[in-house]
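INTERNAL AUDIT FORM
Audit reference: QA-55
Scope: verify that the stored structure record matches its stored sequence.
Auditor: D.O.
Record contents follow.
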Amino acid sequence: MTKYTVKDIARNSGGFAMLAVDQREAMRLMFAAAGMSTPIKDEVLTDFKVNAAKILTPYASGVLVDQQFCYDEIIKQKAVDKNCALIVAADDFIPGNGIPVDKVRIDKNVNAAQVKKDGAKALKLLVLWRQDEDPNERLDMVKEFNKICHDAGLVSIIEPVVRPPRTGDKFDREKAIIDAAKELGDSGADLYKVEMPLFGKGQSNDLLKASQKLNEHINMPWVILSSGVDANLFARSVRIAMRAGASGFLAGRAVWASVIGLPDTELMLKDISAPRLQHLGTIVDEMMSSR
């Protein structure tokens, strides 16, 4: 059986320049916020995701897709470039308390063997981290997810994202990101996808120190995500995180969010998003070559 490793989702430099289009209800909200008439139909999300895959994956080492809105069409239309690894989201988002993702569980409808047969090389799991919830539940879920991936010969990517506690305790996001890394940074996954400290804002030195703290606790290759980071600050965030020990990024919003709701979506993806992704990939290669 073929067993994929992180090298199979990396660039030739060994770094990761990966695109995410697995946003679900959050993307629907983005279209609504951009002024499109509601309700936003599922087809709007599917079309955007498939177009993004077709246009942007020639510049990405991997692309993260969701089964709910785009997987079938992306496979059917062969939308992913042959040099870009397919990554499938294996998380089931449970809405509640007024937000699209209040809880997460492993999506048992994602068949690891089948997606591998379809060409996938990795699965991804979102892990919501709250300081007042049982860490053993999170660790058990990650352990089960890793086993699903590794039994199928797929790469295991975990994405711990911190949330305020349910009990109304004081929430320190920066401390929570570090605490999540302490808990999950040696959990047996192959790649750790992490939020950028300080939302990528502030002085470079502060960002570097915070990223170095993360690096101390993550015992696997790690990449940053772009949610919450201004698109204009994301390239700097990638450089700083990589100086601290990161190996690249797995990002969606910083690449394509600014074109949502614009006319001529395909043209906007070509004119705006593709150069942005190319630039980010160049940064990854530069930073890897300087090691």
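Auditor finding: record pair retrieved intact. Strands lie at 16-20, 62-65, 85-89, 91-96, 99-106, 120-129, 155-162, 191-194, 222-224, 248-251.
Action required: none
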